[in-house]
Amino acid sequence: VNILALESSCDETAAAVIQNGRTILSNVIDSQIALHQPYGGVVPEIASRQHVLAMERVIAAALQEAGLDFDGLDAVSVAYGPGLVGALLVSVSAAKAIAFAHDLPLIGVHHIEGHISANYLAHPDLSAPFVCLVASGGHSHLVKVTKGGILTLGATRDDAVGEAFDKVARALGLGYPGGPLIDKIAKEGNPDAFHFPRVMMEEDNDDFSFSGLKTAVINFLHNLSQKGEQPDVADLAASFQKAAVEVLVAKTIRAAKREGIGIVALAGGVASNSLLRETLQHAALANGLRAVYPPPVLCTDNAAMGGCAAYPHLMRGELMDMTLNAVPDLQLAERLGND
Ligand code: ATP
Ligand code: MG
Ligand code: FE
């Protein structure tokens, strides 16, 4: 069963062909980072227009790489939310057009359901239940993935962790997108040079808060500049990163133990953070748990993850029709799992 999957929720135009839900035949990602870089963040109107320009070419490339034409497809899927509405509309419209023209079943997936499913592509033996930390530009959720669906255990009460990485990077003058730049420069810094708050780490719930941590770093920088001092960017990046990662890992491990679940997983763009991956791996080992995460290219936005998430929906006949629309604030309510 070959699914053509499309994704354009933010600033990546992406198409992939996924076979039987677990094998990547192609995974084409056209990133707009260079276009948005001068503005220090994603400009929605520029994103939409670029998706329109790139979508056809990206789809053609994904089919070619998979060695298929439209006749070789069994279904088409699209992440229809959450995301930027103008951006989402491009892949939603393209998916509907392809489904209509080639008489293919149409599947709508939740973008975060996709991020979580990337773990199945990376670990074909993976099977629910597992606890997954969704850490991305717009989400910091702890979820329980069961055979029946995805259950939200907790979420951030303010900023997403990726947002905190991006804003701290901007304050440090590192540029955009900030996550990978902090990851890189932190390797040259001392993570214990400064102590930033581990917000909510000891609280007995599965929620997060990253706005206080972000503000602590920004205030620290502000005080330095008032004294006319230069910040040690590497030390600050490393200390910020350690504070964020310690909270994420501690709460993920605690949730898994409380739920009596033996596997912890990572998903979303921040899941490509090297310290987060290392720290989770160590903590899991120390607690007798298995840790899994996708390779970095499947952590940040891509279409392959959506094709993986779409497969069980196709198998269960959960199809969309031509009324499918982009839903910018689509909720991760009960979505069905991938087993
Ligand atoms: P969402 O998935 O919540 O809708 P999004 O699609 O914009 O948001 P993703 O593409 O999943 O977000 O992730 C992008 C985020 O991941 C950005 O905040 C980016 O800085 C962060 N990120 C990417 N690589 C790293 C890294 N190595 N370390 C930390 N953060 C990273
Ligand atoms: Mg992106
Ligand atoms: Fe994403």
UniProtKB/TrEMBL annotation:
InterPro entries the record matches: ATPase_NBD, Gcp-like_dom, KAE1/TsaD, Peptidase_M22_CS, TsaD
Any one Gene Ontology BP term: tRNA threonylcarbamoyladenosine modification
Residues annotated as binding substrate: V134, A135, S136, G137, G138, D166, G179, D183, N273
Pfam families found in the cross-reference section: TsaD
Highest taxon listed in the record's lineage: Bacteria
PROSITE patterns: GLYCOPROTEASE (PS01016)
Gene3D superfamilies: 3.30.420.40
One Gene Ontology CC term in the entry: cytoplasm
Protein's name in the database: tRNA N6-adenosine threonylcarbamoyltransferase
